[in-house]
Amino acid sequence: MRPLHLVGSVSLAGLLACGGGSHPKIIDVAIPPDSPPDAFMCAFGTGRDITTKNATNGVIDFSTPPALVLNSVAAQDGKAEFSVVLTFAAPDTDKGVLMAWHDAIGVFAATGAGTAGRFSKPPTAGTYPMDADATIGAGVDVVAGIVDNGDGTVSLQHLNQVYLLSNNPTAMFNLTRFTPAAVLNGTSQMDGAYSGATMTGHTLNPADGTDLTPSGNGCTVGIGMSAPLGWVKLGISWKVLVAAPIDPQPQPDMPDFSRMERVPVIPGALTFE
């Protein structure tokens, strides 16, 4: 998001008007407030709920041809992760939801009561508090400024807004199936849903991803407030992990979008309520 600037304003203390004689008169008038600012706008409106579009029984079927199978990759901590972006229908194709899952963190922590366990367990079906970005095992980010690569992937490297979870542990991740367990060169499938999530907007500098509004920009959006944002048959292929590059300027509680250059995408999968 570009720095805030205003349009439609006139920085004059008065207006020049012609009277009945030959001498001009200065007429003092009140300057109306600047409206609306063209740069600072909530990318999704505010207070709206994101739901699925053209889904069967309210869920996205990732096996619908062409079936989507995600390749696991290495996160910066060396653990496996996988992610997918769901975008909105035109004209909002540059906006969407990033869904991400990370091994041995949050919901998928290796030990502890109430956790789903590592990908290799396999994870236990159940309903779990959704994870915030700083400790993400299963979670979402709402993003604006997506660039379509034209090959079934998108880049998130130059986002202008991102909405982060602000009401965990109220927001829920319902894991209904994860089978079989993750093994090298094998493939798993996962069914699940997110519900009850409130997301708080942040304005980013598209050039370097710097959060320009660390305390939030006043915009909010919901995920799964009216009905869960659900999916079935999301495939994951388990590959040899290659070390991920290190973000030279990490930001607390903010994902490293600089390395998200080719994230698989399901276009036109979302809508607003």
What does this protein look like?
- This protein has 273 residues and is mainly β.
- Helices cover 0% and strands 40% of the residues.
- The strands form 3 sheets. Strands 3-17-16-13-10-8-7-19 form an 8-stranded mixed β-barrel. Strands 4, 5, 9, 14, 15 and 18 form a 6-stranded mixed beta sheet that branches. Strands 1-2 form a two-stranded antiparallel sheet.
- A hairpin with a 4-residue loop joins strand 11 and strand 12 (153-155).
- It is globular and about 45 Å long.
- The protein starts with 13 loop residues before the first strand and ends with a strand.
Chart the SSEs and their pairings:
Elements: E1 14-18, E2 24-28, E3 48-52, E4 59-61, E5 69-71, E6 73-74, E7 80-88, E8 95-102, E9 126-129, E10 138-144, E11 147-148, E12 153-155, E13 161-165, E14 172-179, E15 187-195, E16 197-203, E17 220-223, E18 229-237, E19 263-272
Parallel strand pairs: 3-17, 4-18, 5-18, 7-19
Antiparallel strand pairs: 1-2, 3-19, 6-7, 7-8, 8-10, 9-14, 10-13, 11-12, 12-19, 13-16, 14-15, 15-18, 16-17
Q: What descriptors fit this protein?
A:
single chain; mainly beta; 0% helix; globular; disordered N terminus
In short:
The chain is mainly β and 273 residues long.
Q: What is the total number of structural domains? A: 1
Number of contiguous helices: 0
Oligomeric state: single chain
Query: In whole angstroms, how far apart are the ends?
Result: 24 Å
| Gyration radius over CA | 23 Å
Largest sheet: 8 strands, mixed, barrel
Number of strands: 19
Form type: globular
Uncertain regions spanning at least 5 consecutive residues: 1-39
> Which percent range describes the beta-strand content?
35-45%
| H/E series | EEEEEEEEEEEEEEEEEEE
For the largest beta sheet, what order do the strands appear in spatially? 3-17-16-13-10-8-7-19
User: Percent helix among the residues?
Assistant: under 10%
Structural class: mainly beta
Average pLDDT reading: 81
